[in-house]
Amino acid sequence: MTSHLDITLVGEPGSEAEMEAHMAAGYAEADRLIGIISAWQEGTELYQVNAMAGIAPVAVCDELFYLLKRSLRISALTEGLFDITFASIDKVWFFDRPMVQKPDAAAIAASVRHIDYRYVQLNEQDKTVFITNKGTKIELGAIGKGFIANKMKVLLQNRGLSDGMVNAGGDLTVWGHNEQGKTWRIAIADPERKEKLIAWVPLSEGGIATSGSYERYALIDGEKYAHIIHPKSGMPVKGLQSVTVISPDVELCDAIATSIFLLGKEEGLAFVNRFNDLQCFIVDNDNQFHYSDNLKKVTYAA
User: Fold this and answer.
1) For residue 201, how far is the Cα from the chain centroid?
2) Cβ distance 60 to 129 under 8 Å?
3) What is the pTM of this model?
4) 258 annotated as ligand-binding
5) Which of these three, 139, 165, 199, is where a domain ends?
6) Is there a binding annotation on residue 255?
7) 2 annotated among ligand-binding-site residues
8) pLDDT tens for residues 87-106?
9) Are the C-beta atoms of 57 and 51 separated by less than 8 Å?
């Protein structure tokens, strides 16, 4: 689900063995959760849910049930722009290997027919999940990383660690202070030159995630097609290079960032401005910066 996991711990170091134990516990928690919510790892609960699509409900643990329930709420909030059933499009667009031509319209249309979060039925009493449509598949990448980061954070806090940061595939959550005893400063990378920073955002408690069109894409006849697919059309979206979302809840960040990408600059900013606890920073295709009304403390890099 995520190829990069990183833990930063600050404070009284204790013994080397103690710090190693804290780190190991954090990474073990991530492995445990991936073993539940991964759509691609055979034998996970989510893998079984997908395998039984159109056949029968599957009983799942409280953690997966919670995550699916929250995902469906976000889908309803965004009117289906955030949709965990987008995985059928993976059979049409490929971003991990070369593509020589665009998918034909019929293949795209056939995949899109399977994308609809309303195909997912949750039974609260039995804690079961049933995908009613045979061709539909759930994938939790756009919320699962934040979920894992938050669970790792809670575990580490419960072990007495008052300051730290967890980075789960680019979804970051922080608490307390950094090594200098100050508020964490989170960098926003330049979409065109990833090694260059364009801004810093202060964060003492909460999460931040960036969704970008610049890292994963298909190059076909000299044109880039971003990995962010519109669930209604089945086509990669254009217009924005990156969207960074800040929230007290890291689970929301990537999901909302993806939704803003699909809404576009104007509608995306209007959406975020409806919520006091959401902030966003947008870089459009002209390299212009835009940010939500309540994002005031941005320091632009030189």
Assistant:
1) 19
2) yes
3) 0.92
4) yes
5) 139
6) no
7) no
8) 888 778 777 777 778 888 99
9) no
